[in-house]
């Protein structure tokens, strides 16, 4: 029964049964060196000895799984003691640690135009190293599979970074829009007075009177804040008002007051006042065309 199953298996593989009058080739596999380091290349030698009736031999599809990466191949033929001998050399790179088994490999030989199959013996190699660490030489690049995996990770990281940047920009734009809407809803009458103060301050700055322009804008802003919220009194120090503003998420206004104080204390009015006025115009949406 077992013999019948074997015959059916060979018949279903696409190869003929070996002829009885022809001695089948002898295939031997060995690997050298038998011990290596992770990522170092080794050679798998497959020697096939066969009689003259065999017209040719070739390697079948290599069965190495994902344990080894196949590099270069070579083939050498010679005649030894009246018999042909073909030696295949396959360069392999192991990417796992431990005692790795190289399974039996298929050898296809041809007699009278018909193809037959024999198998080599299996062999093993001892790979030393630390899992996840490759000791590949500089002239031995990483296998294509690992390279593509790293490339995919790089592209994935870039995609996540771009997504975070886009989300950050969207959040910033939404926040600025909400601030503008919030400022626009603040006491419309007081806001109109602030617009007039800023327009006058812009005129003063344009005429070279930066000191007066900054004092007018700062006092106008203080008066506007006091009319909007009772706790934001004009007699508060900048530090006290800063804490109250930030508690109400008014960081932009608090930062402007602090920047104005820095210019006052440093007495560096040249260039900085125009920028502050433009910034205050932007915060409250009054525009510099109010001048």
Give a structural overview.
The chain has 291 residues and is an alpha+beta fold. The protein has three domains: 14-135, Immunoglobulin-like; 143-183; 186-290, no CATH class. Helices cover 45% and strands 24% of the residues. The protein is rod-shaped and about 115 Å long.
List the helices and strands and how they pair.
Blueprint (H helix, E strand, L loop, with lengths): L1 H11 L13 E7 L2 E3 L4 E9 L5 E4 L8 E13 L2 E12 L3 E5 L3 E6 L2 E6 L3 E6 L15 H42 L2 H19 L3 H19 L9 H10 L3 H16 L5 H13 L7
Parallel strand pairs: 2-10
Antiparallel strand pairs: 1-3, 3-6, 4-8, 5-6, 7-10, 8-9
Question: Which keywords apply here?
Answer:
Immunoglobulin-like; disordered C terminus; 291 residues; single chain; 45% helix; 3 domains; alpha+beta; 10 strands; three-stranded mixed β-sheet; disordered N terminus; rod-shaped
What is the level-2 CATH architecture name of the largest domain?
Answer: Sandwich
CATH topology of the largest domain: Immunoglobulin-like
Low-confidence stretches: 1-12, 135-142, 287-291
Percent strand: 15-25%
Q: Tally the helices: what do you get?
A: 7
Note the run of SSEs as H and E: HEEEEEEEEEEHHHHHH
Strand order of the largest sheet: 1-3-6-5
- The CATH superfamily of the largest domain bears the name Immunoglobulins
Dominant shape = rod-shaped
How can the largest sheet be summarized? Answer: 4 strands, antiparallel
Radius of gyration: 42 Å
Number of DSSP strand runs = 10
**Main structural class:** alpha+beta
Range of helix content: 40-55%
Distance between the termini: 105 Å
Mean pLDDT: 77
Number of domains: 3
The CATH class of the largest domain is Mainly Beta
């Amino acid at each position: 029964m077992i013999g019948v199953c074997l015959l059916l298996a060979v018949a279903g593989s696409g190869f003929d049964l070996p002829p009885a009058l022809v001695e089948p080739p002898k295939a031997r596999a060995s690997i050298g060196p038998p011990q290596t380091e992770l990522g170092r290349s080794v050679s798998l030698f497959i020697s096939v000895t066969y009689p003259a009736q065999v017209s040719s031999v070739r390697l079948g599809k290599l069965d190495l799984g994902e344990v080894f990466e196949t590099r270069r191949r070579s083939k050498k033929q010679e005649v030894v003691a009246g018999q042909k001998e073909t030696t295949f050399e396959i360069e392999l790179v192991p990417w796992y640690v431990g005692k790795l088994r190289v399974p039996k490999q298929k050898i296809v030989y041809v007699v009278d135009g018909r193809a037959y199959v024999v198998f080599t013996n299996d062999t093993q190699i001892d790979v030393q190293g630390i899992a996840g660490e490759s000791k590949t030489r500089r002239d031995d690049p990483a296998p294509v599979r690992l390279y593509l995996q790293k490339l995919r990770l790089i592209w994935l990281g870039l995609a996540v970074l771009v997504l975070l940047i886009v989300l950050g920009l969207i959040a910033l734009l939404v926040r600025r829009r909400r601030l503008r809407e919030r400022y626009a809803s603040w006491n419309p009458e007081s806001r109109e007075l602030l617009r007039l103060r800023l327009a006058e301050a812009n005129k003063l700055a344009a005429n070279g009177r930066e000191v007066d322009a900054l004092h007018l804008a700062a006092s106008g802003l203080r008066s506007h804040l006091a009319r909007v919220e009772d706790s934001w009194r004009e007699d508060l120090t900048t530090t006290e008002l800063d804490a109250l503003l930030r508690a109400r998420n008014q960081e932009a206004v608090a930062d402007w007051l602090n920047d104005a104080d820095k210019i006052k204390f440093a007495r560096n009015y040249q260039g900085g006042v125009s920028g502050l006025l433009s910034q205050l115009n932007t915060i409250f949406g009054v525009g510099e065309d109010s001048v």
